[in-house]
Amino acid sequence: MADNNAPTADLVSSGDNNNVSSDNENEVSIDALAKKVQESLSLAKRHKFWETQPVGQFKDLGNSSLPEGPIEQPIPLSEVKQEPYNLPTPYEWITCDIDSEEVCNEVYNLLTNNYVEDDENMFRFNYSKEFLCWALRPPGYFRSWHIGVRVKTSKKLVAFITGIPAKIRVRDTVVLMAEVNFLCVHKKLRSKRLAPVMIKEVTRRIHLENIWQAAYTAGVVLPTPITTCQYWHRSLNPKKLIDVGFSRLGARMTMSRTIKLYKLPDQTSTPGFRKMERHDLPAVTRLLRNYLKQFVVAPDFDENDVEHWMLPQENVVDSYLVESPDTHEITDFCSFYTLPSSILGSQNYTTLKAAYSYYSVSTKTPLLQLMNDALVVAKKKDFDVFNALDVMQNEIFLKELKFGPGDGKLHYYLYNYRLKHVLRASELGLVLL
To answer: Which residue range or ranges hold the Glycylpeptide N-tetradecanoyltransferase C-terminal domain (predicted)?
Structure first.
């Protein structure tokens, strides 16, 4: 199980959002994957580890005789290693209590200073403490899966990895999995090979709860993605994005023309479009469950999950729906979460406020119109950019609503579960934070 490192370039747009490439066939060619692997020595080191794990291996790509499903069968819980893995002598394991203000601060500071950056080191994810509490405490979470590494002498937190439980449907089978995320090692300790030990330790703790599969994402190619997605970016505050180097002024474009190009209406256009409230839970759960059935891999949400993940929380997650003015039926739903990035090199700005498209369902309102309304409310809430992956049905609106492709890819993985074929991004119904 690996980190949910978003691709470096989901933080950075590739300039003029008009120049949208038409090359978004999401099939991953075996040759391209193999080439990427051979090109990178640092990855080869990682692969030494991954080749020992029950994950799809590059050598098996295209071998349709291998069955879908678990790669290794569960072992009796009594045979799962009971003691933590050994760390290098100066370090010790801790379980991070995210409910503790002090621990939450430590985790926040470690991630804010050491987590995912873009290739040019211009932006770094800046998950808020409220966001971390939301992301790490879904229904049924295990505190023992929030794992830290401290320096024994100074007690400084220098590494972190997490898992949360999730019911994920793969075709017709619902599997209880762990979603593994936030693998972060302090910059000064990157050479210490802590990451594989941390992955093994979180895996061990997950196995102790009788869970044998996991889902994760990474910005790098490991053995072997179930699909590869691309981030797209929609400018909401183009002047700031260009000022801080997130995007560039397009060819033959002036700043004033660019601002005009990305201007949005002041008000949403759909009658009955409003913020989701607690009493909407049953209706939103039905909408989501119905919609997610069409994808090969998707979460199996119940009402408790929807309450946790979708009920609006200021500066964490926003959810809106359409209630028919005539029948009062809830017909459509859209949501996005708040994930700012620190701006590392700017004189004028410290934070880039980014909205990330989460789950959206259109039954009566065209998806294009629904997402345009989402852009309008995001702009009103002072977001600088709205990001979306090309998963689910998102391709319907990306180009039409002036999203431009970023320069990075996000690879999705399953641990100890084999799919016969690489999926298209549009066959994926899962968004990991």
So the answer is: 243-422
> Do residue 253 and residue 158 come from a single domain?
no
Contact of 355 with 338, CB cutoff 8 Å = yes
- Which of the following is catalytic: 288, 398, 419, 433? 433
Helices (H), 293-330: 303-310
Q: Are residues 129 and 274 in the same domain?
A: no
Domain span at 220? 8-228
User: Residue 433 domain-assigned?
Assistant: no
pLDDT tens digit sequence for 134-187: 999 999 999 999 999 999 999 999 999 999 999 999 999 999 999 999 999 999
- Give 199-223 as a DSSP string: HHHHHHHHHTTT--EEEEEESS--S
Q: Are residues 309 and 375 in the same domain?
A: yes
Q: Is 433 an active-site residue?
A: yes
Dihedral Cα 366, 404, 249, 247, nearest 10 deg: 120
374/380 Cα distance (integer angstroms): 10
CA dist., res. 306 & res. 358, Å (int): 12
